Amino acid sequence: MWRFGRRPGRASRGADIGALLVPEAFGADPVLRTACEAVREGEVESGLPLLAESREAPELRVLRAVELGRAAADRPGGVAALVESGADRADAVLWLGYALLARIPAGAVGGAGASTAERKAASAALHEAGDALEAAAGMRPDDAAPWEGLQAVATGLDADREDKDRIWREIIARAPHLFPAHMTRVRALRPPPGESAGPGAAEEMFAFAGSVADTAPEGSPLPAVLALAHAEHLRRERDRLRGEGNMDFIVDGAMGRLYGEAAQELFAFARDWVARAVPHLRDAQAHHLFGWAFHKAEMTEAARWHLSAVGGLRCDLPWSLFGRASTEAGRAMAELGVDPARDPGA
Q: How far apart are CA 111 and CA 95, in angstroms?
């Protein structure tokens, strides 16, 4: 279960490790990488068979829609043109919605450094993506994928709670254990930036994540969403301290680490998942979440084990909450002596 005895050779620098990592989707779904490369080279129709094959598999469909959307971010017109060429309309419009989402720069929505013009442009892009995803949802009523995209739109726009809850109900009615939907729901429940940072400010977010961890199907990676709640909370604390004018080295020290019962709770969930794990497309994401949490908690052996388990696969969350994802993940791996170039499955 826990192979804590293995200590791979230490890689030279975090940046070097980060450069070796590839998106988790390409490890979980190898045919996706080839299709995305073809889409980036202008062969947009290459993505359609993958979406058609995934209509009855919500986890795979969202995975593919997100990654194909990123591949088509610079050519949404090409995706839109597929509808006119006779492609399945629901697949093409779903893909268009995710391509429009992928065009929005990181930090442009709600980011402290974003200009007014950037925020307005991001808001307009979110509304455009939402229109496409609403259309896709209407074309294939049993499909959870458009609703997961709509949840990302509602979170980005900071929609009212009633709208967020409505979308969440639509998702779980179609795919009650959809991993990325639970990740986005955690983020949708985080306290708004301007709200007081008292001890109960993140209570609802933690209550949801804890409930998911407690009730997840046996062997599911879903308990890892509790680690995301901790990451969101620490990111919020960092932003609050910075907003009060504290210097970065003071902020880093004040943020401390995951302590006591919180860390032990995560360890128990991770241990139980590993003992009963059923292969899942989001296993690498769960390993990254637990690996981040245990690194933060200074539970070195557990952190090393989880980050060794990802091989050479990169996940944006939770690392992107604290900087560039590949850099932050690479730095943690370097500190732990994890070298994905040597790891089996890299």
A: 26
Name the helix (H) or strand (E) containing 238.
helix 225-243
Distance in angstroms (rounded) separating the CA atoms of residues 280 and 220: 7
CA 93 – CA 338 distance, rounded (Å):
41
Dist CA 310 CA 332 (whole Å): 13
Nearest-5° Cα angle at 261, 258 to 267 = 75
DSSP code, position 221: S
- Please give the span between the terminal C-alpha atoms of the chain, in angstroms, as a whole number: 20
Cα separation of 152 and 158, whole Å? 10
pTM confidence score: 0.89
Domain boundary assignment for the chain: 1-25+189-346, 30-180
DSSP 190: S
CB-hemisphere CA count at 13 Å for 264?
3
pLDDT for 342? 67
**Mean pLDDT, rounded, for 125-139:** 95
How large is the greatest C-alpha to C-alpha distance in the chain, in angstroms?
A: 59
CATH 1.25.40 fits 30-180, yes or no: yes
| DSSP label of 150 | H
The one-letter amino acid at 35: A
Could you count the other beta carbons within 10 Å of the beta carbon of residue 72? 25
Count of residues in the chain:
346
| Per-residue pLDDT at 343 | 46
Residue with tokens 């949840």: 151
Tokens representing 346 are 């890299």
Dump pLDDT digits (tens) for 293-337: 999 999 999 999 999 999 899 999 999 998 899 999 999 999 999
Tokens at 204, concatenated: 């609802």
Residue appearing with tokens 């490890």: 27
C-alpha–C-alpha distance, residues 306 and 277, integer Å? 13
